[in-house]
Design brief:
Length: about 290
């Protein structure tokens, strides 16, 4: 990894290039079964992992050093938001670490004698030592963190672009005033001028990787799921503010798009949402502020 995470993120965001420095962390990957669960709501907290259901073997996603092997009988520590079970933590260049969870006990024991690992090297079998999305077959929770920047990184931005995201829809967009009253934006014609919060209906199989909200052509909020910030024992998604999972996902069927200040007169609210491959969808709404 010769480029820092920040360089990768900036180049990917602004040049739209396919850049990656990590390989897939499981052997014989079926990308259609992978769950792009990073930044999703999981029991009131942001999920910081990618989930690989039915995976059998874990492999190192890049060259690195094994700095810790955690067993299911140890505490996971303050940095880690989900139960790891038997897990290996590997350090890489640029202050990045990768975490491989739900290993079987013997694999974890074998890794305690290793130090250096190479890209693609087998780490062991995946079992049932941790929380799993699929308790019938087991799965691996894979995480990447920047220890210097105190952030979890969406692993997909550092991996090969061999996935096919589901289509994003901007359905059920609502606008909520400061008193908690919500309106359906598609049928709304006028509201009092002032501050509002925008939400969209959550999709079960995909969530926008990046969203932007404009009023009359001016960008008022941009939210990206490239990283989650860790601070004071809490995980945040970053937009104009640091949003906790409770604020970003206020109910089981809604997620935050952003905040706006609606002026007097006729206004155009524009919302764009894109997936990890920058496939985007746009919706426009004409609203009068009085």
């Amino acid at each position: 990894m010769k480029k820092s995470f920040y360089c990768v993120a900036i180049l990917f965001a602004f040049l739209g290039q396919t850049l990656f420095s990590f390989g897939w962390p499981v052997k014989n990957l079926d990308t259609e079964k992978m769950v792009p669960s990073f930044a999703r709501n999981r029991k009131g907290k942001f999920n910081v992992s990618l989930t690989f259901p039915n995976a059998q073997k874990a492999v190192a996603a890049d060259n690195g050093k094994i700095i810790a092997v955690i067993t299911e009988h140890q505490n996971d520590g303050d940095w880690f938001e989900s139960p790891l079970g038997n897990a290996a933590i590997i350090s890489h260049n640029d202050d990045l670490i990768s975490i491989y969870t739900n290993l079987d006990a013997q694999s974890a024991l074998n890794l305690q004698d290793k130090f250096q690992v190479s890209d693609g090297q087998e780490l062991g079998d995946i079992a049932f030592s941790a929380w799993t999305e699929n308790p019938q077959s087991g799965s691996m929770e894979f995480q990447i963190a920047d220890t210097k920047g105190n952030t979890y990184i969406n692993p997909l931005i550092l991996m090969p672009r061999s996935i096919k995201p589901n289509r994003i829809y901007l359905d059920g967009v609502t606008i909520e005033n400061q008193f908690g009253r919500a309106y359906t934006l598609a049928t709304l014609r006028s509201v009092p001028a002032g501050p509002y919060t925008l939400y969209k209906k959550r999709q079960a199989n995909i969530s926008p990787h990046r969203s932007k909200v404009y009023v009359n052509g001016t960008e008022l909020e941009k939210i990206s799921k490239e990283v989650l910030k860790w601070q004071d024992g809490k995980i945040f998604i970053v937009g104009n503010k640091n949003y906790t999972s409770e604020r970003f996902y206020p109910s089981d069927d809604t997620e935050l798009l952003g905040h706006i200040l609606l002026p007097h007169g006729v206004n155009t609210i524009t919302i764009t949402a894109s997936d990890i491959l920058e496939n985007s969808v746009t919706a426009n709404f004409m609203i009068s502020g009085y």
